[in-house]
Design goal:
This protein is an alpha+beta fold. Strands 9, 12, 15, 16, 17, 18 and 19 form a seven-stranded mixed sheet that branches. A four-stranded antiparallel sheet has the order 1-8-6-3. Helix 3 (143-157) packs across helix 4 (168-179). Helix content is 32%, strand content 21%.
């Protein structure tokens, strides 16, 4: 009967939700052991190096076990959830616990949890239920090691005290035994736990393991950090001033460490690779966009744009598309392996978007073929999807040229770094009134600064200058959107 139950368990593995991604972080579980799931039901949300994605389960059944807690980075192909698809309804919760307990020890398939109400200690999801007695859990706390260490220190400071040499003497070796796991061997811990220990500066050889078979858990690492805090004032007998100064230098409230992972990690790697691979050149132009701003207000009242978001970015995007049509060689990429320049006859227009998870650059596919209302609709969908954190990896692949709008932050201009694989990126500065010579007189006009960075391997100064000049000319005289189209 047990064999049939185990045979009905399906393991759902972390899929590759992008192209060539190797890992993903579990952001949130939507189910728990014992819950019934159906084919296509979303069970968790994960974050890859490109986006946050919801994962649906591909079959019906009852959740037996969640192999990893939220916040864990898991390799693609690793099982993350076990589901009983046998259709049975016999006590799903104990079954989940049993399957977790069986993973560390492949033998004893028919073993059942003993003494259901006898104070069994819960452990971190992914490590199963401790198979030994429940007295292992108190080892996690620092109480015994701290007391023994204090006794040993008092013995050394007082010399050979007449009253207590027998009691502290065996206590000293007892302190060293659990602190150093199995001599010089490598401590047992899973990769996420090792990463946590590294981030917190914890030496795993000093951590007391409480997991099955001597495995160090996340709780053990946190316990080691907590134990280190009261250890600082311990030598208070001799140099009181020195002891008082030591904790201040380790004041954790003075700095915050943020793990670099997911979107931020991918962005950092991409920007470093781009900056040190493609020779960047950036050119600037300041332009009077008063007429463009007037056209924006007129389009907002046009019935063809009813329900659509019309803003300066829409006309800037259209201006760039027209400039690319007039200068098609700028829409290209560099093929290092073939030593060729690949000119694209389509434009997948990327729009840099700042999100809580970091900077992402989704793109509008075949933007060159869209009418102005269609482009407005696509821009609106792109921005709202990015803000909701629902941008798919496919939406961020295949871009050919990008726009980044730094003006929304009140910034005048910048020197943008190319999105990897693209030849150009246009930065748009803040649009604001400035004194400008217009028809021979100085008048207040709406002015902005544009910056175009391009890959100098495939875009020379003449071509880059023509593209930037065309964009500026269209924004100064937006009727060119018609005459040049």
């Amino acid at each position: 009967m047990t064999t049939m139950t185990e045979a009905s368990v399906r393991e759902f593995k972390m899929p590759d939700v992008g192209e060539g991604l190797t890992e993903a972080e579990i952001l949130k579980w939507y189910v728990q052991p014992g819950d019934t799931v159906t084919d296509g039901q979303v069970v968790c949300e994960v974050e890859t190096a490109k986006a946050a994605v919801e994962l649906p389960i591909p079959y019906d059944g009852v959740v037996r076990d969640l192999h990893f807690p939220e916040g864990t980075t898991v390799d693609v192909g690793t099982a993350i959830i076990a589901v009983d698809v046998g259709g049975g309804s016999a006590a799903p919760a104990p079954a989940a616990e049993q399957s977790a307990a069986e993973r560390p020890a492949a033998a004893a398939p028919a073993e059942e949890p003993k003494a259901a109400g006898s104070g069994r200690q819960p452990v971190l999801v992914g490590y199963g239920v401790a198979t030994s007695s429940t007295r292992r859990r108190p080892r996690k706390g620092p109480e015994v090691p701290v007391q023994q260490a204090s006794t040993a220190i008092q013995t050394e400071l007082n010399g050979h005290a007449p009253a207590a040499p027998a009691a502290p003497a065996p206590a000293a070796p007892a302190t060293a035994a659990p602190a150093a796991p199995s001599g010089g061997e490598r401590p047992l811990a899973k990769p996420p736990v090792r990463k946590l220990a590294k981030d917190l500066g914890v030496d795993l050889t000093t951590v007391v393991p409480t997991g099955p078979d001597g495995i160090i858990t996340r709780e053990d690492v946190h316990a080691a950090v907590a134990a280190a805090v009261p250890a600082a004032p311990e030598p208070q007998v001799a140099p009181a001033p020195a002891v008082a100064q030591a904790p201040a230098s380790y004041d954790t409230t003075r700095e915050t460490r943020i793990p670099v992972k997911g979107v931020r990690k991918a962005t950092a790697a991409a920007m470093v690779g781009s900056a040190f691979t493609a020779p960047h050149v950036t050119e600037f132009v300041t332009v009077d966009v008063t007429r463009t701003m007037k056209l924006v207000e007129e389009l907002k009242a046009d019935k063809e744009f009813a329900g659509l978001r019309v803003n300066p970015l829409l006309l800037i995007a259209k201006a760039l598309l027209v400039a690319i049509r007039r200068n098609p060689d700028v829409n290209a990429s560099w093929d290092e392996a073939a030593q060729e320049i690949v000119v694209k006859h389509y434009v997948n227009l990327g729009i840099a978007a700042a999100t809580p998870r970091g900077l992402i650059v989704p793109n509008i596919k075949d933007a060159h073929a869209k009418t102005l209302p269609q482009l407005a609709e696509s821009l609106g969908e792109l921005v709202s999807t990015a803000r909701d954190g629902k941008t798919s990896p496919a939406a961020m692949q295949g871009g050919t040229v990008t726009i980044t709008n730094v003006g929304v932050f009140g910034v005048d201009t910048g020197t943008p770094i190319l999105n990897p694989g693209e030849s150009a990126i246009l930065a748009v500065g803040a649009i604001k009134p400035q004194p400008w010579v217009h028809k021979g007189k100085v008048k207040p006009r709406q002015v902005t600064t544009l910056a175009l960075s391009f890959d100098h391997r495939l875009v020379d100064g003449e071509l880059g200058s023509k593209v930037l000049a065309d964009v500026a000319a269209i924004l100064e005289q937006p009727k060119r959107l018609i005459t040049w189209a």
